[in-house]
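Contributing: when you submit paired examples, paste them exactly as shown. First protein:
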Amino acid sequence: MLRSLSILLLAAASVSAGELRVLCWNLHHGVGEDNKLDLERIAKLIVEQKPDLVALQEVDNQCTRSKKVDQAAELARLTGLHVAFGKAMDFDGGAYGQAILSRFPIGDTQVHQLPGDGEPRIAFEAEVKIDGKPLRMITVHLDHQQDERRLKQAQTLAKALENHHEPMVLAGDFNAGPDSAVLKSFASPWTAVPKQDPKFTCPAADPKSEIDHILLRGLEPKEPASVLPEAVASDHRPVIAVIKM
């Protein structure tokens, strides 16, 4: 039923002239605040938001804890979107990392390994073409334990993206607030999309921190981003932004 619904909604939804809808969400490998593993409710929200691009963090690929499901592929099946998965590390009999869903076919992809000991951290980049013009979509998940390590990861990623000339969207769980040194690592020409109130994204049941962000380069937001009031499906709330091309 959800598969049929997703196809109908995606077919009915056209990208508004000159606008792009971008969704960012840390999925907590599909386990919600109620401790239930449920990809269908995640897919349902994605379909309802009609995004053109989706940045997903904490995605399992055939891990034992999530029933050996390729979660990125399953979400693509449920939403009708194209998908690419970037592995951060081997984990629990499978792989763990990030994913990008796209209304547009996905071209070249690249995993950016970020520095630091502890849990391996990456940014995952994919190229999509919109009306024949390339755009770079990057999802990122930075360290949650040490400020110094997190800052070094942000600086490394900012440096790695310097030579790209295409418009870029960078979205993810930065584990840092909007006024942090981490976010300031992405200086001009990067722009962080501001959020309308309420701005907090984590923990989902009772958010107290604003650590999930959408940044742009070569693009402008149409309006402030919205934190969606989804309080159960993950331990983070999703963020949606509308971007002017």
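Second protein:
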Amino acid sequence: MDLNVNGQPHTLPEHARDPAMPLLWALRDGLNLTGTKFGCGIAACGACTVHVDGVATRSCVTPLASVQGKAITTIEALGSEAQPHALQLAWLAEQVPQCGYCQSGMLMAAAALLAKNRRPSDADIDAAISNLCRCGTYPRVRAAIHQAAEKMAGGKK
């Protein structure tokens, strides 16, 4: 079974080819892309959020069969050390991470939002970011998304 992950074709190893297997486990155990986290296993927390054809998707409940032929993007491809994504820079500037466990899913949900809506309101952010953060950094998340949106728009309001 082949997947298009982070712009590259990948052939899954034999142990990660069950079409019913959640995408999360194929990414983590099959491709060793461990930035995507397991949180709840029922799509409630969002720690496992990746993009499938640009849409924020909870990978813990997404079977491999449903992502065949689709573009999958994980946190590993959001930015790089040399060129971080505007959200990653804003996350640091706003000191969003506390324990950090939810951060990869939160960032991926925020990136999907900004790809669709370059100037989200607080209500837009609240509707799009349903990820859970046990540390309660939601005000910082909102501020970071606004900061990244401004940077991505060239600093214009």
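If you have annotations for the second protein, write them as plain sentences, like these:
The mean pLDDT is 96.
The CA atoms of residues 96 and 141 lie 6 Å apart.
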